[in-house]
Amino acid sequence: MFKIGIIGDKDSIMGFKATGMDAFYGEDKAQIEALIDRLAYEQYAVLFMTEKAFEMATEKVAEFDNHMTPAIIPVPGISGNTGIGMNSVRRSVEKAVGADIFFDD
User: Fold this and answer.
1) Minimal CA–CA distance to 90: which of 72, 77, 103, 76?
2) Model confidence, pTM
3) What is the DSSP string of 35-92?
4) Domain assignment present for 32
5) 59 versus 86: which is more confidently predicted?
6) Domain interval for residue 70
7) Which of 8, 26, 32, 105 has a CA 20 to 30 Å removed from the CA of 50?
8) Is there a domain that residue 105 lies in?
């Protein structure tokens, strides 16, 4: 059975536990990369990551770009939106559609 999890700093991810997601605390690049590998092995279909965690582990995230699972999705953390999540969605849509269909502000 596939699962959904979130990786990031404690303050940003604890609220997600109320939604039924498994929350995993990662403080540095090595911890976050190890969590991604472990959770992929444990059949997590979707991994949400705070933008800060996502940014720390961009090389590891890229290893899963061509895999069906886990889908790794950046979300804003408690400190706010850095734009990484939207840029990731934009790249994914452009890859799927063949063009950037988002309007710039």
Assistant:
1) 103
2) 0.80
3) HHHHHHHTTEEEEEEEHHHHHHTHHHHHHTTTSSS-EEEEE-BTTB--SHHHHHHHHH
4) yes
5) 59
6) 3-97
7) 105
8) no
* Residues constituting the chain: 105
Q: What's the CATH code of the domain at 86?
A: 3.40.50.10580
Distance (Å, rounded) from C-alpha 5 to C-alpha 45?
8
Residue 14 included in any domain:
yes
H/E element, 22:
strand 22-25
Encoding tokens for residue 54?
């996502």
Q: How far is CA 28 from the centre of its chain?
A: 15
Paired tokens of 86? 């939207």
Tens of pLDDT, residue by residue over 29-64, are 999 999 999 999 999 999 999 999 999 999 999 999
In angstroms, the CA 68 to CA 50 distance is 20
Q: What angle do CA 27, 50, 30 make, to 5 degrees?
A: 30
Total structural domains within the chain: 1
